[in-house]
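G., the chain you wanted modeled:
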Amino acid sequence: MTDRIALAAVAGAHGIGGELRLKLFTDGASSLAHHSSVSIGGRDYRLLSCKDSGKTAIARLEGVNDRSAAEGLRGSLVEVERTALPPLEEGEYYHADLIGLPCTDLAGAPLGTVVAVENFGAGDLLEIEGPDGKRALVPFRPGIAELAEGRISVDPEFLA
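Predicted structure as tokens:
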């Protein structure tokens, strides 16, 4: 488990006043907006505002006052302390907790490791790297890839 959880990534500047366009990893800007501080690139910032803007969110941070400063944060993760997040319900997880988990086939034979979690709108996809370095995206769905006992059990038919 990590101490910080990424809730968004900085996609770029919005306007000339230092606002940031964010790619959210949450259900909406409100998930981020209730935090008073965030960490970006290892530096803590006071979050002044965060609002939905179509497919992205727009945020304002204390000390980021112009377009150049905002562009300088492009590509950085927007993280919060894990302790600031609500407790997880049964069956819920943070993507950060899946990365690094071992993957096995249904019989328990090793297949690789989760190296990333993606979501393009249709559900979570696990990027699994095998011992040979090949990577495959596998839907994180019951019967295909499931979390159990600190590992991901994967139907090998879905590994290409």
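Residues 5 and 85 are 9 Å apart (CA to CA).

Shout if anything looks off.
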